[in-house]
Amino acid sequence: MVDKAALCEKIKSIYPDIGECGIDINVDYDDEKQTTVLYLRRGNKEVKHYLPDEDAEACMAGRQCVALGVEIAQLRDERYL
User: How far is CA 1 from CA 21, 25, 36, 74, in A?
Assistant: First the structure.
């Protein structure tokens, strides 16, 4: 399991406009599903993104965060609000 705070900081470093463009992020771990859960919020819209352990580790290593990028792009787009 990846450290939640470290993962949050890594995601902010990959997507530096999180926070600046009004997208907030919170990271938690779902023990029941054994996966990291990312809560992305902009305005009144919230996206819950599940990040399996192996994907979280790949993200931390800078190898992959593609699916998360799609979710963030949707929150950036005014049409999705």
Answer: 29, 19, 8, 27
Tell me how far apart the alpha carbons of residues 48 and 52 are, in angstroms, rounded to a whole number: 13
Residue pLDDT, tens place only, 11-63: 888 888 787 677 898 999 999 998 999 998 888 888 888 988 888 888 888 87
In this structure, which amino acid lies at residue 49?
H
Task: Please state, in angstroms and rounded to a whole number, the distance separating the CA atoms of residues 72 and 30.
Answer: 21
Q: Strand locations in 1-81, DSSP E?
A: 24-30, 35-42, 45-52
Residue 65: phi and psi, rounded to 5, are -155, 35
